[in-house]
Amino acid sequence: MATERTARRRRDTPRKGDLREQAILRTTEQLLERDGVEPMTVEAIAKGAGISRGSLYFYFGSKQEVLTALVARTLDTLTQDATVFPDDETTPPHQAIEHAIDRTADMWRRHGRVMRTAVDYAAVIPEIGDLWTATVATFTEVMTGVLVRAGVPEGDGPADATALAHTLCWMTERALYQAASQPVPDLARAITTCTEIWFRVIGHRDGTGSGG
Amino acid sequence: MATERTARRRRDTPRKGDLREQAILRTTEQLLERDGVEPMTVEAIAKGAGISRGSLYFYFGSKQEVLTALVARTLDTLTQDATVFPDDETTPPHQAIEHAIDRTADMWRRHGRVMRTAVDYAAVIPEIGDLWTATVATFTEVMTGVLVRAGVPEGDGPADATALAHTLCWMTERALYQAASQPVPDLARAITTCTEIWFRVIGHRDGTGSGG
DNA sequence: CTCCGATTCTACACAGCGCAGATTTTTCTC
DNA sequence: GAGAAAAATCTGCGCTGTGTAGAATCGGAG
Among B85, B90, B119, which Cα is nearest to B102's? Predict the structure, then answer.
């Protein structure tokens, strides 16, 4: 009855097969970039990592689990990169907003395919959805603080900092996803528009302006 | 090579099998609500519509095609309901915004599962993605007009009406999707937050207030 | 050299899809 | 309302790709 997950086990013990695990993830990202999720078969991943299909199931319980691990690794990096600076209370709100958006966009530039896959399969592979939601939640939390510091009322009403931050974070996610999915991605433009909206919401009318 | 689509044909001639087509769509929406996409097998749909699995392929070339048809039908209704009034130049901007958001939310209430499925599979089933994108594009167009009437500069810069409308439309979509996906959906709250942001973006500070 | 866990491989069973071809039911024409 | 064409339906096959079982190999400790 109890459906087994997570292959057979392996979680700690710094054995040598950890290299294989890395190789699997590396190959997966490559194949993902080249082919996309569906055309990418478990066979291909295994071969790319130098093992047979059956062997892969020693490391991951399923194709989805591989994908999930890859997404998890990427989102960890993202959260690290993008939220530390804005979370600092001494960072001015405008800079915090710009920083968070810029860093996130950077992640979309460097690991666009993984990011897109995460969004695309967030609903199909619940674990990925959870990871994504958790990440956005972290952003929301941090940005709520930023909004408060910018003068938006604290509280949990639908027009208070938390709700606004939440919706704006999802907006930013969507905008970058959209931008990154275009045949000719223009992240810069998306950044500008998002920043503009964030700024308008906190009220201070002062520009991204100057530039170009 | 030329891969055939759309089952065998059937397009005009008001034959009687049109009822079956309707029955298939009806059953699909029901099963979707009960089970979700993946657990819903073609077998089950066919049975629900009173025919055998093989017969279903007379009407639709694949499971995905069925889904696509269902989504298309739903989005047609949505576009009809939500964009006509705001598109009227004499409609005051605030009302236009409220109307569009309200009607869209209504669609999420009544056909939440179909709407969610559309979003969830927008990337997996390209045809659905196209339908969704086209719908949002229609909204964007209409709402661009509304923003312009509200005083937002026309033009195609990243901070002009089109870009803002685009991003805000996707924001609204995402917010409603989020809200509708919660265990206890609270569309009303999402509506309030979105409306607030739209209002803040067009600058006029005046309430959702004056209910009824 | 032997044992044990870690790793790997080969082979199998299965679910669900889409298609082929035969068959039955409608619909149309006279 | 008989007969032919078109529409609608059925049964059964074959395929792809997954996940699992169980046997074989490797590598270091004793």
Answer: B85
Contact A121, A37 (CB under 8 A): yes
Alpha carbon distance A48, A33 (integer Å): 14
- Write the single-letter amino acid at A186: D
CA distance B68 to A18: 43
Closest-CA residue to B160 (of B172, B145, B139):
B145
* A149 CA to D15 C1' distance (Å): 61
B174 and A178 within 8 Å at the Cβ level: the answer is no
A-interface mutation test, from B160, B173, B174, most A Cβ less than 10 A away = B174
Minimum distance, in Å, between the CA of residue B159 and any CA atom of chain A = 5
In residues, how long is chain A?
212
Q: Give yes or no for residue A3 having a pLDDT over 70.
A: no
Nearest to A68 by CA among A13, A22, A126: A126
Q: What digits encode the pLDDT tens for the residues A53-96? A: 999 999 999 999 999 999 999 999 999 999 999 999 999 999 99
The reported pLDDT for the residue numbered B18 is 82
Reported as half-sphere exposure (CB side, CA atoms, 13 A), residue A176 has a value of: 25
CA–C1' A55–C5 (A): 16
Say whether B147 sits in a helix, a strand or coil: helix
CA distances from B36 to A47, B22, B29, B176 (A): 33, 19, 9, 19
A113 touching B (Cβ < 8 Å):
no
CA distance B139 to chain A (A): 16
Q: What is the pTM of this model?
A: 0.85
Pick from A172, A176, A143, A135: which is nearest to A160 by CA? A143
Neighbours of B139 (CB within 10 A): 24
Instruction: Look at the block and give the residue holding tokens 């055998």.
Output: B52
What per-residue confidence (pLDDT) applies to B14?
61
What value does the mean pLDDT take over residues B135-148?
97
CA B37 distance to own-chain centroid: 17
**Nearest protein residue to D27's C1' (by CA)?**
A16
Residue A100's pLDDT band (boundaries 50, 70, 90)?
very high
How far in angstroms lies nucleotide C4's C1' from the CA of residue B195? 66
Tell me the Cα Rg of chain B: 20
Q: How many helices (H) and strands (E) does chain A have?
A: 9, 0
- CB proximity B136 to A under 8 Å: no
Asked if A123's CB is within 8 angstroms of B197's CB, the reply is no
pLDDT above 90: residue B212: no
